[in-house]
Amino acid sequence: MMNKHFVLATILVLSLLLTAIPFCSSSTTSKRYHFNVEWKNITRLCSTKAILTVNGEYPGPTIAVNEGDDVEIKVTNGVSINTSIHWHGIKQLRTGWADGPSYVTQCPIKPGRSYTYKFTVTGQRGTLWWHAHIAWQRATIYGAIIIYPRMPYPFAAPIEAEIPIIFGKCDHM
Questions:
Q1: Strands 85-88 and 126-132
Q2: What pairing do the DSSP bridges indicate for beta strands 47-54 and 126-132?
Q3: Tens digit of pLDDT for each residue in 13-70?
Q4: In this predicted structure, what is the pLDDT of residue 24?
Q5: Which of 15, 51, 86, 104 can pair with 100 through a Cys bridge, CB separation 3.0 to 4.6 Å?
Q6: Torsion angle (degrees, nearest 10) of CA 47, 48, 52, 55
Q7: pTM above 0.70, yes or no
Q8: Which helix (H) or strand (E) holds 117?
């Protein structure tokens, strides 16, 4: 009789634990991006020149994530020179190989090859930037990283629009 009550109690406790596990798990989201490094003719100040871009954009695409998100960015090198991307200001906690400086934390991405950067945005919010981290490429390969807080904003008025402003030099392209 005692053994039967013990088995029923064990089953009850295990079923309660198993149903509680989904509620205890974190709600991280994975954000995925694909960057194609490629040449593109860009016109600025009445001058057209072929420059390195990401996805044909100058400046490059904005990465928008929430605090705590897992981020994956596949970078495909579509040009004939090495490249790499540095996530400026992102805390690389246990993911130092995803920091981006060529010949420091990673080998550069060779022509025609791809590399997927994987990291988690932990304890950060605000606006940062990403840029190429090899030779002169950071002059044209860069963009914004916007990290939204996991908790709501501390003010009531809704934000109608967010437009990142990125400064770059384009007078002698």
A1: antiparallel
A2: unpaired
A3: 555 555 444 444 455 689 999 999 999 999 888 889 999 999 999 999 999 999 999 9
A4: 41
A5: 86
A6: 120
A7: yes
A8: strand 114-120
